Amino acid sequence: MPDLRELYQEVILEHSKAPRNYRALATANHKAEGYNPLCGDHFTVYLDLEGNSIRDISFQGSGCAISKASASVMTQSVKGKTRAEAAILFDQFHKLVTGQSPANGNRAELGKLAVFSGVSEFPVRVKCATLAWHTLRASLEGKQDTVSTE
Amino acid sequence: MTTAAARLPGESRPADPRDAGTEVDVQKVRRDFPILRQRVRGRTLVYLDNAATSQKPQVVIDAIRLYYERDNANIHRGVHFLSEHATEEYEGARRKVQSFLNAADASEIIFVRGATEAINLVAQTYGRTNVHAGDEVLITAMEHHSNIVPWQILCEEKGARLRVAPISHSGELLLEDFEKLLGPRTKIVAVTHVSNALGTITPVQRIIEMAHRRNVPVLVDGAQAVPHLKVDVQALGCDFYVFSGHKVYGPTGIGVLYGKSALLDAMPPYQGGGDMISSVTFEKTIYNKLPYKFEAGTPHVAGAIALGTAIDYVNGLGMDNIAAHEHELLAYATENVSALPGIRLIGTAKEKAGVLSFLLDSIHPHDIGTILDHEGIAIRTGHHCAQPVMQRFGIAATARASFALYNTREEVDALVEGIQKVREVFS
User: Nearest residue on chain A to B385, judged by CA atoms?
Assistant: First the structure.
């Protein structure tokens, strides 16, 4: 049986209570909205892109602990990264939470994102963990439609 | 069949009068539901998601199996033994529903897929015939999406207007506002009998009286009421009443539309096909009489028969006994859950049935649901297909525990302990 503490790790709980980069970004030149109507998770991701580089990133909104913590840790992880680097991180993160990454495979590169490894044992919560990331991708691609992972 | 199930009325035996008027022996009842015996995530299953769907007693499961093992044939058309027998069983189920709702005539009972299809049927037939540009359809602010969207589709097509009667902060219909919204352009009222998100029992009797004074027909969505309350459509005087079999211990895919025969007679058919016709030529088709006019194609025969068995089952226990047991359980749950720190109940109407919706601190209901699931406790989290209710309370979602005749005080205690566990995880 999956361990609840694997899902609700201290880092996740702490980020969900005190999310980082939780504000509207005055200098944002990109933004996108993510919304999962069934659970009610609803976030806006703001980006300050300089060329291909994410100079600054922030988010606002509401959702469950997993979705909020994921958004918070994501902003920390991709700040200062290029689009391509962020895309690779998303790919690795997605593999992690869907149980497709080899044990200890990319954990080192994932850094703090590795705390979400427990999500793979809770398939219905994958959509929570990936909502912010899909929203980030939409924002990078300049898409106007609201993103959903439901 | 278990001993306990054998004691209960079978497919065709009448209810044992010794069972009526006795209180629900919940431990005995639980043995009738095989699914409740299993363990989930290493713990005994505590099933508190009955407003989404109820579990099935062995007699209902047996009725489906027996139908396919013994009786399966198409109905209303065969001359052979099996077809005749299947037709008798199917029509027998219709009479059971008639008596369950106390409808005046069995031809007023239309078998459909569920409450949703029943509402769509009325919107697309009665609605399309009688609602025109500038007219109004009146609903309440606590409807399930299935009693909103079919009317929106109708209003959009016709250029009509959907009016919504507001509810109070406790989740009660504001009757005075409702009455003010009943106007000369109101062509139909559609209202829930029990709110699936809040548990509120609405004052349908008074709603119907108000509407009828203005000659406006009323559809009552009984999906959440039928499992918990004794329903008498003649006493209510409602024009349409709908419910789903799977919420009242029957199978999925079968439900009921009750309609007054004068209204049903005047309505055009919903779907065309076999069984709903008397004669067909390429020039003209003559529709069948009620109820067959609204039952195009081969229906869910097994489902209808098993719904009849489910009705026998609840009649055997007695709807009044079931209502009393659930009322006591809901009161116990309300008292114990609301005593916990950080709890906010959503839906605190005086008259409630079956549902306890709540929030815990600022913890998202989805997280509550995952942690309770880990304890083997099944609840529903989310907007419960009633997003306007969530908007009314300025929230995205709630956690909802909903009760059935087989739930116990021990299960409520498990829920209370589970909620404390949620707080521990998030402390």
Answer: A38
